Amino acid sequence: MQSPLQSLDIAIGAVGALPQPGLLPAGVPPASDAEVAQAMLALRKGATLRLLGDDVLLWPGLPSLVGKARAAGAAHVTVQTTALPLLRPGVAAAVKAMGVSGLLVPLFGADAEGHDHLVGRPGAFAATLRGLRAARAADLRLEIFAVALRPTMRSLDALVARALPLPIDALHVVVPGPGSDAPPAWLPHPALAAPFVVRAMTLAVAARRRVTVRGVPPCLLGEMGALACELAPAPPAIDADSALLAAAIARQFMTQAVDACGDCRWHACCPGVSVRQVERFGATGIVARKDAPPRGGLAAPRRPRLDSRVAIADVSLESRS
Ligand code: SF4
After folding, report:
1. 240 CB-contact burial (10 Å; exposed 0-12 / middle 13-18 / buried 19+)
2. CATH code for 5-319?
3. So what's the pLDDT on residue 263?
């Protein structure tokens, strides 16, 4: 018997009409039906399930999968979307009635100029905000992916300030790296993005929102590094009864050590550093921590390294090389 899972992310390959530059790694195969079925069997009562993809609200299999997840005991089902499908009257309420509890929506800039440029669609920013407000009116929880790309990363704090009053429940800062589907010229050096990430995190923390960071390791985040480390999810305990699912879960928590990490004491709670990022940008700013890791990091076991076919997507997927 595999151990029950408290939280799970599944990439389901739902392609939307709007490009999502850098948000998910390019070429990651979605979960197969068999993998999704295994995931449902592994869910613990009260678990949180996140369904990731360009626009999962457009995926025809959503009502059936949400129903299965709820029947399996999932307490929260969060779905990634552009929020544009919510512009049609009644859709937000129907999504809520289906059993979806919250949405994960990316913002690529603090205003129309930046966001619309990066997704290549005039009017997309204003439409996304209207969709987000429709979601709130239907009592759906909101989590935002704040995507830091070179053209817009300097206004990351303005993006967060704009999102907070919606209101949002959580902020996930994403700094895409090599291997993502963003144009290479848009990819920021993690050490250059770090000060903007710290400012965005500081705003969200001051507003008492949950914050996660992907793409910048804790040693680059100054005082916020301890928070990023402490909030990094611990890998779930799972018996390898289901090799496929175990591999996919391990993939979520894959940490790549690079030479600069040395004997860093924070390794166990570091969400990962991308080998391809280091190959491209060097290891600037990555310095092994000699001080004791934050509380959560002390308890977390060293994460497994596995190069599996990816069904479940989260941090560091760009590091498969
Ligand atoms: S393990 Fe490496 S990347 Fe992570 S905090 Fe330590 S030095 Fe930084």
Report:
1. exposed
2. 3.20.20
3. 85
